[in-house]
């Protein structure tokens, strides 16, 4: 199947080819000839039909959002909101007494925390590529968090700052 843009390109090439051979053919006439070659009555019919033909989109991915397991809402909020500086994007429970599913965001980084048994394994690691890692380290160290004072480690692949949450999950920040 041809798209409208492909048909226009064919007409443009036909017009240019014939013009270079001293055969006078207008672009509009080239559009009509291309439409007839494609099996349409005229260009108006072809353009109306071709516009409806949608090429399936290529596979694209928008973003990855890791899900980490949590076991205690109070500790999760203390760590991710107070210490790490995330904001709550959304909260969801099917009912008041059921497990919490929590969406967090900070400067474009999205993380979901879940109390649901099957959503994630405790002790997971997520890798976050970032810029200005020293600023993050300085911010976190200035908070004097009682359960960790992360620092940057120089690796062959970049500067790495690892932070462990209260549930054994690790967020590995890296500046390449």
TrEMBL record:
The cross-references to CDD domains, in alphabetical order and at most eight, read: BLMA_like (cd08349)
Query: Where does the source fall among the domains of life?
Result: Bacteria
InterPro entries linked: Bleomycin-R, Glyas_Bleomycin-R_OHBP_Dase, Glyoxalase_8, VOC_core
Keywords tagged on the record: Antibiotic resistance
Q: Which Pfam families match?
A: Glyoxalase_7 (PF19581), Glyoxalase_8 (PF20066)
Q: Which residues form the VOC domain?
A: 60-176
Keyword Cell wall biogenesis/degradation in the entry? The reply is: no
Q: What protein family does this chain belong to?
A: Belongs to the bleomycin resistance protein family.
Annotated protein name in UniProt: Bleomycin resistance protein
Originating species: Rouxiella silvae
Q: Species lineage, top-down?
A: Bacteria, Pseudomonadati, Pseudomonadota, Gammaproteobacteria, Enterobacterales
